Structures are given as C-alpha cells and as structure tokens.
C-alpha cells in the first residue's frame, strides 16, 4: 500500500472514532489509518476488533501530549492528514477533575497541531508543495456555544460561551486550531457536533446507562427535572459529516453537525423504556419507567442545545440518514447483544 496516503486518527478506541475507522476503511481503499490512542478508561480495543487484521490499519498506544512520539509517528508513517478525536469527553468527570481535561484537550491538541505544522510546513522549499495542503480536522462539540433558551439554534456564528470545564477545554482547543489557520496558514477545519448516540458508547453516558440499568432492574438516574434538551445524532451520521468536511470543507471553516432531533432527557428515557417493554418485558415491573429516579442536577447543567446544520447541508450536501426513532432501535439492539440479552 505504498501509494496510499496515511492519515493519523487520534482517540479511535473511543466511541466516535471506533465507529469512524471501519466506516472510513471500508469506503476508501486509498488511505491507511494510524490510530493513536492512550487507552484511558474510555478507550477499548474491543471496539475495533473488526479492523485488527486490516493491512491498512495500525494501532499505536500513546499520548497526544507526548511530543517525541508524535514527531516519530509523523515521519515514520509520512502522515499526510489528521483527524483528531482524542479527548477527555465526559462532562461529569470534568467537574470532579478538570486538570486532565486541560492537559489532553488543550495541551494535547496544541502538541498535535504544532507537530503537524512543523512536519508539513517547515520543510525545504522543494517538498512544500506536497505537504502544504495537508488537512488537519479537529473534532469538537456544540457545548462550546453554552446554553440556549427555549428558542433559537447554534450556528457557526454563535459566540463561544462554554460553561463546564469540558466545554471550556474544547473551546480552547478550537481557538488554538483557529490560530494555526490565521497565523500559519494551515489547512485546518473544525466540526462542532451535537450529542451522539449509537453502538460502542462508554457505559458512563446517558443512553447506555438507561439501557443497562433497565435490564438490570436498577434505578435509572435522571438529572434535575429531566427537561434538559439535547439534539441527538446517530454516530454514523456524524462520521459521514466528518468524511464530507475532511474531503470538501473549506480551509479555516467551521461546520456544525446536528440531527434536528431535539429531545428532553425524559423523552429519551421514556422512549427507551417503551421499546424495552415491548422487546424484553420486565419480570417484576409493568414498565421499566418505574425505575426512573430523579437525582440532584449536574452543576452548571446547560438547559438546551440545538444545532443549525444548514451550512453543512447546503454547502456540502450532508443529510442525516437516521432519525431518532430508527437510530435508537439499532442502538438498543447493539447493547442487547453486548450485554448478552436475548429474547
Ligand atoms: P470517548 O471518551 O469515547 O473517546 C475518547 C478516546 O480518546 C478514548 O479512546 C481515549 O482512550 C482517547 N484518549 C483520551 N486521552 C488521550 C490522550 N491524551 N492521548 C491519546 N488518546 C487519548 O469520546 P467520544 O465520545 O468518542 O468523542 C470523540 C471526540 O468527539 C471528542 O473530541 C469529543 O469532544 C467529540 N464530541 C463528542 C460528542 C459525543 O456526543 N460523544 C459530541 C460532539 C463532539
């Protein structure tokens, strides 16, 4: 595969990256992927067994904060593109322990973009042509925009107003990427996506917690009054958006990705309980909804997020393939098989 371009993908033992890698390898035969992941508690190589033996895929365990390692990877594999997923991603953990979020999301992103810049752009003149347009794609979140009231949508022009240490660290990383475009002319793009759901998400997140606790007949914890609204997107639709922006997005631009699927947390839990009640009825309860337990709200809990994805739709022709009703059924089926539950 010597003629193939090699892309460095970071954090792909996690939820979104491990959905992205098989999708991308299958769709394109002209790329090799090198996956750099520290395998923190959030990374799991079982998410990528289907790629293990693919000659166009290589896994490296390591930290994006390790500069020497990054320099080695860029030159050893002649990296010609980066898609940067690696991050600390769980808001609750960022409230308990913000330091590691600053380290990985801010310092790690700086390291990665700076090593890429030096490898691609500080080359002798003759080599420059080949590298100058190498793409750096930074994966970010809609949480950088803060919270919405009952109406309105986040667009790419919405001012940043992050409220949690997680969103502040992601906002900072977005700004660092922006500066490498403005100052050094790097070919970076940023995507800010809404909440993802689908296979391979870590147990700690809302939807896997609802499914697992229901099946184990444990209380299903819901923050506050359950009326916080998120805009849910099926993970493969996010991956397809990333693919489009990586290939066709304009240098220095930001694209919002969102499913136009606003749901309160209470609606999410009710939908999942109703599906499980039909598919796999509880032996002790008339409905899994009886397990719903309201718990003290998360500090600084943003009330509503909703994305306006018009730019991505109209400029690059993106459209979500799943709506929430179809996506959630696929997701539940995946977790039922992970937990070894059969009818
Ligand atoms: P995740 O927590 O499931 O996975 C993160 C991965 O990064 C893990 O495999 C972990 O081992 C790895 N990692 C952590 N620190 C690292 C380090 N220092 N060096 C190398 N690897 C490291 O996260 P996810 O949900 O897959 O999110 C991926 C990206 O997408 C993140 O940047 C996140 O901010 C962004 N995002 C997520 C969502 C969502 O709903 N999950 C929505 C929008 C944006």
UniProtKB/TrEMBL annotation:
Enzyme category, top tier: lyase
Gene Ontology molecular function terms on file: dTDP-glucose 4,6-dehydratase activity
InterPro entries, sorted: dTDP_Gluc_deHydtase (IPR005888), NAD(P)-bd_dom (IPR016040), NAD(P)-bd_dom_sf (IPR036291)
EC number, as in UniProt: 4.2.1.46
Record domain NAD(P)-binding: where: 8-330
Cofactor(s), by name: NAD(+)
Catalytic activity reported: dTDP-alpha-D-glucose = dTDP-4-dehydro-6-deoxy-alpha-D-glucose + H2O
Any one biological process term the GO annotation gives: nucleotide-sugar metabolic process
Pfam family, one: GDP_Man_Dehyd
Stretches assigned to coiled coil: none
Record field: transmembrane: none
Alphabetical UniProt keywords: Lyase, NAD
Protein's UniProt keywords contain Heme: no
Family: Belongs to the NAD(P)-dependent epimerase/dehydratase family. dTDP-glucose dehydratase subfamily.
Protein name: dTDP-glucose 4,6-dehydratase
Organism: Malaciobacter mytili LMG 24559
Gene: rfbB
């Amino acid at each position: 595969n010597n003629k193939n371009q090699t892309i460095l993908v970071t954090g792909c033992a996690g939820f979104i990256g491990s959905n992205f890698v098989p999708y991308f390898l299958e769709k394109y035969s002209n790329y090799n992927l090198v996956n750099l992941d520290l395998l923190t508690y959030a990374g799991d190589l079982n998410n990528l067994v289907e790629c293990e033996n693919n000659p166009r895929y290589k896994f490296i365990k390591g930290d994006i904060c390790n500069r020497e390692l990054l320099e080695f990877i860029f030159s050893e594999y002649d990296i010609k593109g980066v898609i940067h997923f690696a991050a600390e991603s769980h808001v609750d953990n960022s409230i308990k322990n913000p330091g590691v979020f600053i380290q990985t999301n801010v310092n790690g992103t700086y390291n990665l973009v700076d090593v890429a810049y030096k490898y691609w752009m500080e080359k002798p003149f003759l080599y420059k042509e080949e590298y100058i347009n190498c793409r750096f794609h930074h994966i970010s979140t809609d949480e950088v925009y803060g919270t919405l009231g009952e109406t309105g949508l986040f667009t790419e022009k919405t001012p940043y107003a992050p409220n949690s240490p997680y969103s502040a660290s992601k906002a900072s990383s977005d700004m660092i990427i922006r500066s490498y475009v403005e100052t050094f002319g790097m070919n970076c793009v940023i995507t800010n996506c809404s909440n993802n759901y689908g296979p391979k998400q870590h147990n700690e997140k809302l939807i896997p917690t609802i499914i697992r606790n229901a099946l184990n007949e444990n209380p299903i914890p819901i923050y506050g009054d359950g009326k916080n609204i998120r805009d849910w997107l099926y993970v493969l639709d996010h991956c397809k958006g990333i693919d489009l922006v990586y290939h066709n997005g304009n240098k220095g631009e930001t694209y919002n990705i969102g499913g136009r699927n606003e749901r309160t947390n209470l609606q999410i839990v009710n939908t999942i309980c109703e599906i499980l009640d039909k598919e796999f009825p509880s032996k002790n309860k008339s409905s899994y909804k009886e397990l719903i337990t309201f718990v003290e709200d998360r500090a600084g809990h943003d009330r509503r997020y909703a994305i306006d994805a018009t730019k991505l739709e109209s400029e690059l022709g993106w459209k979500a393939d799943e709506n929430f009703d179809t996506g959630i059924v696929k997701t539940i089926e995946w977790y039922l098989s992970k937990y070894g539950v059969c009818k």
